[in-house]
Design brief:
Elements (H helix, E strand, L loop, with lengths): L1 E4 L5 E6 L5 E14 L5 E7 L2 E2 L15 E8 L3 E8 L6 E4 H4 E7 L2 E6 L3 H9 L4 E8 L3 E8 L3 E3 L7 E11 L10 E8 L4 E10 L4 E11 L1 E7 L3
Antiparallel strand pairs: 1-10, 2-3, 2-9, 3-4, 3-12, 4-6, 5-6, 6-7, 7-8, 10-18, 11-12, 11-18, 13-14, 14-15, 15-16, 16-17
Length: 231
């Protein structure tokens, strides 16, 4: 029996540099990159996206102008924050210790059962099982695993069983070379087999640096779908 991240019970909590506030976030996705030559790996965790607020303010709890933000935290001590305003973006990459006094990665692993075929997948969906997925890329010098919960899936009730996963956001590396924070972007994944997926990627466009979703990424790969062990 395999294990995978239990995203319902996994959180990242940071303490701001001024030590005035802890912020806890759900984990949306994990990308693990392994150097096939050395065996060393780095994990990047995509946290839940939220609207920014004026924390502990006596009034005007919502920032003006409003913006969405979503953070990526690595287990090697760096971060990326994606800030999306109505008409622009303001992303930031840096060393975690410059912005946070402490970051706690509480990542819970849970036993999982791999689903063998489309019939297993349909049965799990109609039995209201929690589903997770893993997309595996093997390259010459690096291998990459993308772990995420399946938030939306379609299954066909007819005799010929069909399924289609449409879920996200996830982290996707946009280069085939060494995966670093600069090469990670948001994406939404679509797949209807265990051998190939499509992903629509976010990019920064125009002089105003607006975040848009337009680039479609198609790739043959190895995909695993699993249910979580229910105690």
């Amino acid at each position: 029996m395999e294990t995978n991240i239990d995203f319902n019970r996994s959180f990242v909590t940071w303490l701001t540099a001024n030590k005035k506030s802890h912020g806890r976030f759900n984990v949306e996705c994990r990308v693990r990159v392994t150097n096939n030559l050395t065996g060393k790996n780095t994990s990047y965790f995509l946290l839940s996206g939220i609207m920014a607020g004026n924390v502990y303010s006596n009034s005007n709890l919502i920032k003006n102008p409003p913006y969405l933000y979503q953070a990526v935290i690595s287990d090697k001590g760096d971060f990326k924050i994606l800030r999306t305003f109505i008409d622009k973006t303001d992303d930031e990459i840096g060393i975690s210790s410059d912005l946070f006094a402490h970051i706690d990665l509480n990542i819970v692993q849970e036993k999982c059962k791999l689903l063998k075929d489309k019939v297993d997948i349909r049965e799990a969906v109609l039995s209201n099982k929690r589903l997770g997925a893993k997309i595996i890329h093997d390259q010459d010098s690096y291998s990459t695993e993308i772990d995420f919960p399946i938030k939306h899936i379609n299954v066909q009730p007819a005799k010929e069983v069909l399924f289609q996963v449409e879920t996200g956001p996830v982290l996707v590396h946009v280069k085939d070379s060494k995966c670093q924070l600069e090469s990670l972007t948001l994406g939404y994944v679509f797949f209807s087999s265990m051998e190939q997926y499509e992903c629509i990627l976010s990019s920064i466009s125009g002089t105003k640096k607006q975040r848009i979703f337009e680039s479609v990424h198609k790739r043959k790969t190895n995909i695993k779908i699993m249910t979580y062990h229910e105690s």
